[in-house]
Amino acid sequence: xTRDRVAxxxxxxxxxxxxxxxxxxxLWMLLSSFKPEADIRSVPPxxxxxxxxxxxxxxxxxxxxxxxxxxxSAIVAVLVTAGNLLFCSLLGYALAKLDFPGxxxxxxxxLGMLMVPGMxxxxxxxxxxxxxxxxxxxxxxxxxxxxxxxxxxxxxxxxLSIPDDLIEAARVDGAGEWRIFWRVxxxxxxxxxxxxxxxxxxxxxxxxxxxxxxxxxDDKYTLPVALxxxxxxxxxxxxxxxxxxxxxxxxxxxxxxxxxxxxxMRGIATTGLK
Length: 274
Prior knowledge:
The protein has 274 residues and is mainly α. It folds into two domains: 1-28; 33-271, MetI-like (MetI-like fold), CATH 1.10.3720.10. The chain has 14 helices and no strands. Helix 5 packs across helix 8 (149-159), helix 8 (149-159) packs antiparallel against helix 11 and helix 13 packs antiparallel against helix 14 (239-270). The protein starts with a helix and ends with a helix.
């Protein structure tokens, strides 16, 4: 019993240390967003503000056209997330439950695309978007990311866990593939859809490099791009403005995760099981 208790205490200590390592930077970011600029630059850094101030948040809303940038980020993230949920679930269903020539080759292609770094396709994507006249448009920000190999793989693995007998029974009853997908399969995919939705929304909301290159005017900047451009001056970095903006950027992601965490955990636990 003593050995088991020591092992349990050691495990809790390790988990608490890991939790502190993960949560610590976010907690410091939150507290530092209320510090004066001098406190943020102090060495060694301090946790607790010597003086609480909202100046950085006032400056954030005064210097930036915050509603416009927030709306741009929300529009892009929502459209990209919706596109991934739709197209990745359709492709995953086809790869998991439909028998057609070339299915195995197509799945191997998806796996191969998972191993291709995003930077390899970045320049070709930009050239294609530019040649199509979609630069500095919402379409140019959204279209390249409406589906991805990870989402297809995730949905395919989850759909393999749905019994084939259930789909065959629907076919015997006269249901077509579209009706089977929308009325039978998709309602059973809530955990996988929640997982894919959270990961896609997080990736799209925090995406910086693609909007920086594609968006060329202020009215198309997303929040991370606008925050970086306005907080980093020619000779000085405004850390308080960056930290306040980072807190505002993190809040929507936390809300989405908290709203879908039950389905997210279930999706992570069951994806890939047969």
